[in-house]
Amino acid sequence: RSTAVSLDYYSGSDAVTRGDSSDSFGIALVQDFDRQNISAYVGYREYSYSDPTATTFQDASSFIIGTFWQF
Question: What is the per-residue DSSP string for 14-43?
Answer without folding.
Answer: SSSSTT-EEEEEEEEEEEEEGGGTEEEEEE
